[in-house]
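Example 317, ligand NDP.
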Amino acid sequence: MTQEIEKVKSFIIGSGPAGYTAAIYASRANLSPVMYQGMEPGGQLTTTTEVENFPGYPEGVEGPAMMADLQKQAERMGADVRWGVVTKADLSERPFKIETDDGKYFEAESVIIATGASAKYLGIESEEKYKGAGVSGCATCDGFFYKGKPVAVVGGGDTAAEDALYLSNIVSKVYMIVRRDELRASKVMAQRVIDNPAIEILWNHVTKEIVGTENGFMKSVNGAILENVKTGEEKKIDIDGFFVAIGHHPNTQLFEGQIDLDQQGYIITKPNSTATNIEGVFAAGDVQDHIFRQAITAAGSGCMAAIESERWISEQD
Ligand code: NDP
């Protein structure tokens, strides 16, 4: 039996602000883009609450609502937005060959990679054991479950600071576990954390183990064992929730060995461009940006990727 192949001009992988903006521009340029939304439709903004810094929303906007609006806008322009995950992308020759988890095969003249980045975890065994049962990578998603209870946030960057401040309004106490004697977070965020009486910063501490109880399938966290890296001293803190906020890694596993990546795995794009080392393949958003990582910069690069795709395709005709 021969496999049916859909031929598309522009194939967009990922549905964050970069992907949707690319879809809006590509649709308006008559490229009839097909988008696969990926594992987390709407991307990282669907795991946040209020976005205050996206221009055009004077009162702020809820992250999931903004992403739903972007999807509607892309679809209204004609983008074919599909729920599903790209399982294989062969970028070795044109047209590029793509397979998806709904059993579809595509040949694409151009590809826009907008697969974003995902939260990093510590990588200790007990963290894996209690994931979803006390261990979380998203304070705004799960904070509510710990109302009135003590929790810990690991990390010293803006994400950790933001998470600790957010949780301080819900929980009884926040321990912020910081591996150095200073925060990486911006000065204003760092000061807010330091000034907050509900947050105790445990400087120079790392997590050795997360502990809890297990009763059949029911698991719950009740503490963490920490080590002071300066003195070697260990101590236990009593907590019900453990939030990991130590940064992100780019979602580029699908393209390893095919496309040029930097040491951290981010896609390398040409200066002032979204072009990758493969002609016809463009990258936009957090998957190629480890510096700004903002919704607005992702959206801007999605626009660039669509414009560059359209120019590239018209040069091939
Ligand atoms: P960052 O990379 O900035 O910070 C990560 C933090 O986690 C650092 O304090 C780091 O420690 C710590 N860390 C990393 N690995 C470990 C580990 N294995 N164990 C313990 N601690 C660890 O990531 P963020 O997600 O905080 O921020 C990413 C970017 O997004 C930044 O540019 C940030 O400014 C931006 N951002 C902006 C916001 C805003 O403007 N409202 C909100 C959120 C993020 P160390 O310092 O020792 O390396």
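Summary: The first strand starts at residue 5 and ends at 13.
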